[in-house]
Amino acid sequence: MRVLLLISLFSLTALADVKLGYVDLKRAIELTGEGQAAKAKLKAEVDKKKAEFELEQRKLREDSLLLDRQSSAMSEEVRVQKMKELQGRILQNAEKGQKLQAELLEREQVELKKIFDRMDPIVKQIAERDGLAMVFERTDSGLIYAPMSSDLTNELIRTYNDKFPVKGFKPPVLSPAPTPKPVPGTPTTPPTGPAPNPTPAPNPGPGPAAPPKDAPSK
Hints:
Blueprint: H1 2-16, E1 20-23, H2 25-30, H3 33-70, H4 76-130, E2 134-137, H5 153-163
Parallel strand pairs: 1-2
């Protein structure tokens, strides 16, 4: 137990000297010109494919209703054949929807990876400048809490937009990361400049007069 306690104390002491940072890559994508351009491009592809898929879905519903109305006038053999064809089309369209979803997800990963590959050197440059031992991604790392002073996202966004400008994109105005608050009980830096003159103590004035001495008796 004593050995474990010593190891724990040593680990805490070593960790206290380690500077860490984190970035929110999802927010960085949303506030960079290239990130917004990639999102817009992907959305256009998704909307187009979604419209095609929904058109086929609507056609299947219409054909299903038509088959229901006409099935009474069909022979059993024809009705069974029509039902098999319709079910085959429904299954084929469902598989097409799953494949389309996988393709769009892959396209998104490819587009975003291009941006992440450009962000990595920027994060590394910031970390080396500030002497950070590690930089975490806010979501993937499972980060629950960290002070705002460790957030490098705004600087990442500003630097990325400066290095890779996009025509027509107006970079957002971002506030710098707040400075950490002093720990209670630690001395603060004394103010510079001449020390104020001490307030002079009030003059007490003359004391009470001594009582007169009795005159000598004759």
